[in-house]
Design a protein that fits this description.
Helices cover about 50% and strands about 15% of the residues. The chain has about 475 residues and is of the alpha/beta class. Helix 4 (about 90-100) links the parallel strand 4 (about 80-85) and strand 5 (about 100-105).
Length: about 475
């Protein structure tokens, strides 16, 4: 059992009762110590890690209530059960107000006390688990765990810190799909003084408009078909914490009006209800579209936009912070290795070069998927380019970034670009010349210079021969 072998301290001035309780709890595999007064209890607490203290209210010297008050200050994780005569129930009530886990009246049945103790230890264990989980979550969303050393990311960290420091400041996160908008929203929450209250994420586009109002604000029994009971909305559930509205640009005009009222008056009204319910939340919203343009187009309320956009947070695309790619790749390799219980692998230099030069339209999410794909398809310790998805190894890469990695001359950048466009056009030189903005003779000369071995299309050969013939005739006529 999870509550076995925990240390219990019994504070009781009657030796017979001490012996009885020691024997009873020792048989249940608990470690038991006993003392006769509060002063000795404090001395023991300073020396040992007790899970539970069982104390009588009436003790020589320091009373049980005074001992309880001291424990709550110096050892807040220690559970306390008060023993009291039935004539002192008022004292037991006072003890509960001071933070006692429970109380039991004398005389009592040992089995009754045993159940009370097990419940107290269970609640203490649950509290410790919740505390540990919260600490783990805070660590997960600490700034050091949002990967990035680039200048855009350092600027982002500074903005997050400033928002987190202001308890009620709303924030609007603007970023492309896959840039980590919810991750930033959670970082704001878990680095603020609202961290111990709920973080409630809501994807506005994933819930039908007819249901979203009820989800956000709650409803009263009978408000609509299927409303069989009163229900709190997610904004009430987030009391004291943070509500994250993703894809807020998809909100209907009617919901935009109601959300504006919530932000202005800090109250919600359930669907079908008349009562204004005060709320204390921070609202963080996000959009992958430019809300200012939506305001200009009449698709989004200007007054709501200004309420949401107190502090704008702009997330950079991955292609704009390529120096973070090796860090992110290393992080994902470690993450998947830990998840699968296997030693971490690494990418070969030519595979890393492909990762560094890909355009990453899906941003960090696409990069994570690419790393997982390579780990699945690759069989060796070193991951190769062929282990990556075809969408990443295809020629849609950043020419300038690729050239900068290789430290090549400008002429080589031009050569790579011309050949890349030619490959994209399937070898069609007429279309290639048109896209490049040069005439076909110039392209033909460049390809001869590059010793291009690709096969020309028939129409390209005709056009090129004709152009060259005209050029020769014009040159002869001018002599």
């Amino acid at each position: 059992m999870r509550n076995m072998n925990q240390q219990i301290l019994i504070v009781e001035d009657e030796p017979a009762m001490c012996d009885l309780l020691t024997s009873f709890f020792s048989e249940k595999a608990h470690k038991v110590d006993t003392v006769q007064d509060g002063e000795h209890a404090i001395a023991r607490l300073e020396e040992h890690d007790y899970a539970l203290v069982i104390t009588d209210i009436k003790l020589p010297g320091m009373s049980g209530l005074e001992l309880l008050a001291r424990i709550r200050v110096d050892w807040p994780e220690v559970a306390v059960i008060i023993m009291t005569a039935f004539s002192s129930i008022s004292s037991a009530v006072e003890a509960m107000k001071l933070g006692a886990e429970d109380y039991i009246g004398k005389p009592f049945q040992l089995d009754e006390l045993g159940i009370t103790v097990e419940k107290a230890l269970e609640r203490r264990s649950l509290r410790r688990e919740v505390k540990e989980l919260r600490a783990e979550v805070r660590g997960r969303y600490n700034f050091s765990n949002i990967i990035g050393r680039s200048k855009p990311m350092q600027q982002l960290f500074e903005v997050i810190k400033r928002i987190a420091a202001r308890r009620d400041a709303s924030a609007l996160i603007i970023g492309s799909t896959g840039t980590g908008k919810e991750l930033v929203a959670r970082a704001i929450h878990y680095n603020s003084d609202r961290r111990d209250a709920p973080f409630v994420p809501i994807n506005c586009s994933a819930i039908p408009d007819t249901l979203l109002e009820s989800e956000l604000f709650g409803h009263q029994k009978g408000a609509f078909t299927g409303a069989h009971e009163n229900r709190r909305g997610l904004m009430e559930e987030a009391q004291g914490g943070t509500v994250f509205l993703d894809e807020i640009n998809t909100l209907s005009p009617s919901l935009q009006v109601k959300l504006l009222r919530v932000l202005q008056e800090r109250v919600v009204r359930r669907v079908g209800g008349r009562e204004n319910i005060p709320i204390d939340i921070r609202l963080v919203s996000a959009s992958n579209q430019d809300l200012e343009e939506a305001v200009k187009g009449g698709e989004f309320r200007q007054d709501l936009f200004y309420r949401l956009n107190v502090v704008p947070v702009l997330l950079p695309d991955l292609k704009d912070r390529r120096e973070d790619i090796p860090l992110l790749v290393h992080h994902f390799l470690q993450k998947f290795a830990q998840h699968h219980g296997e030693p971490p692998r690494r990418f070969a230099s030519d595979a890393m070069r492909v990762l560094m030069t890909h355009a990453w339209p899906g941003n960090v999410r696409e990069l994570e998927n690419a790393v997982e794909h390579a780990l699945t398809m690759g069989s060796g310790e070193i991951l190769l380019p062929e282990d990556l998805p075809a969408s990443v190894t295809a020629p849609e890469r950043d020419i300038v970034q690729e050239a900068s990695l290789d430290d090549v001359a400008l002429a080589e950048v031009e050569r790579r670009y011309i050949l890349r466009i030619l490959e994209k056009m399937g070898g069609h030189q007429i279309k290639t010349a048109s896209i490049l903005g040069i005439d076909r003779r110039t392209l033909y000369r460049r390809l001869r210079q590059y010793r291009y071995a690709g096969r020309m299309r028939a129409e390209d050969e005709e056009e090129t021969d004709e152009s060259i013939g005209k050029g020769t005739a014009q040159a002869t006529a001018s002599l």
